Amino acid sequence: MARPGARELSDSPMRVLTRVRARGRLLIALGTIAVTAVFSYIALRDIHPGRVWDALGASEWALLIPALGAFALGTLARALRWRSLFAVGRRPPLGAVVNGMTIGYLYNNILPARAGEAARVVVLRQRSDAASVEIVATVVLERAYDVAAILVIFFLAQAWLPNVSWLHAAAVVALVLAVGLVAAAAALAIFGDRPIRLLLHPLHLISVLTESRIGRAVEDVVHGLSGLRSPRIAIEAFLWTLVAWMLTALCAYFVALATHLHLGFDAAVLVVVAVGLSMILPSPPAAIGVFEGAVLIALKPYGVPRDAALSYALVLHAVNFIPFLIVGFPLLHRNSRRGRAATTAVAATSGSIARSGSRV
Fold first, then answer.
1. DSSP string for residues in 175-221
2. Structural domain tally of the chain?
């Protein structure tokens, strides 16, 4: 007979985990509200809506065609980067990667706190043989590569950029990130999978997870972190990351031409750096307010009038937002139909096998 209270003791780790997750969600929600309020204030302070509307009306929309082309190529480069982070021989099909990334960006634009990251893990898991834990590891590594790449671009472009007040903060972020990546790579190179096993050791508290399942999770994480363990994979992924961000800057430059901002490519680079760094923070759906505030911060050293800068930010945000709605929802519908068809086929096959067995 089980001792009184044994069930409560066995369930306590799960209850603790549930409470931690609830508090984490609350902190993320509060952080999202605070970040949105600050950046929205930056974007809307001293703005004259009539002037913003006039600037939008004077835009040359035909110039958005090359901007959309650069945006599409940048998205493809990001898909190639994500795929390149998987170990050679374990890489999912490119079509499945593009599918998952598109759905993920769609959810990022309609849900808060970058919920699309979880969505694209689910989609890629359904459309490939990659394990969920392995996919999650590549997604986490992606974020580190993004920050590293935009900071590298920022510092390389310093000779052409105006002085900005947040250079010191960017340098600190770059240094911390570089030290963290080097330390993680060194730990994996020296100790193998032991650091991963140590990090995942608390999973033993969850009774439903067996030793073999935890062992498989460790192996999947190690494979997912191939971008830290293999110099070849790291270089390939980082080059794709640089290409993606430079195409994003090219898109921002074409939007500047369309909105009659007489700025050079250097201003587009600074806009991309500011927006990229702001995406580290918790954001509302589509980063509304945060995106615009970051653009205005980037354009301030160039003396761009705030009304014109906000008009530019709104158009650039639309270019980064609307394509995922146009492509993402039909793709989501297609995926759901394919899932239902697969379920029906499995059920039909199972029924056929059962009938065959009954006749034997």
1. HHHHHHHHHHHHHHHHHTTHHHHHHTGGGGGSTT--HHHHHHHHHHH
2. 1
